[in-house]
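Methods — Computational structure assignment.
A single polypeptide chain was analysed. Its primary sequence is given first, followed by the predicted tertiary structure written as structure tokens.
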Amino acid sequence: MALEQHINPKVRYQQQVDNSEQYVLPFIEASTKIGAQTKVLEVGTAEGGVLKPFLDRKAFCVGVDLNDVRIVLAKENLADELSRGQVVLQTKNIYDEDFRTKYSGFFDVIILKDVIEHVPDQESFIPYLATLLAPGGQIFFGFPPWYMPFGGHQQICEGKWTSKLPWYHILPKGLYRRVLKMAGESEGIIKELTEIWDTQISIERFERIVRRSQLEILHKQAYLINPIYKYKFGLKPRKQWKPLLWLPFFRNFVTTCVYYSIGVRK
């Protein structure tokens, strides 16, 4: 059965705020100090919770999402910052020409938290993001590797066992879809989960795209227990045991989250 944060946007917003304050912002500040002069873009901003700690640091922020309902919620949550002109919130595709023209080479920090695994054609998308960076800027990615127990996001399922069973998302796509259908999952959920199946991003594939895009990894951290699980399940976040990270492919199965800071190669 879906967790409360999957159906309650207020709970989801507060978890976003807390996780961003305690984990995302400190990770980003290992490379870039956040302050009044910092310009931040979040792609897939949802309810706006990730941006809140950056706004509290007086950064200027732009949040975009393709889901208008979530942008409406973000505007409610960040109403004070919106009224001061400190944040811009839009239902927007960052490929749109007007966005590209306005923000080319503009941002010091770009944030994608639990987003890149939903984006098709990542080989083109990741280098495109770099065109929006100001000199010396960085892109933050936080995502669950595809092969981790719930890398298919099957926890959003409505069934009692389909939301709790690990690793079955790595079945062949047709079989995976049939299992979900036989379990009674809605077409909307099946569509979302099979789209994630199409974009599946592993640690190795992500780093390969970065290298081929003339970008470099500035900083990275892998977690055995995802920091967000602190709020979802009451589990203490744990960094991944380093020797496991030396085992390509296998490390994906036991790493529930990875954080990366990416910059333009000098």
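Note: Residues 37 and 126 are 25 Å apart (CA to CA).
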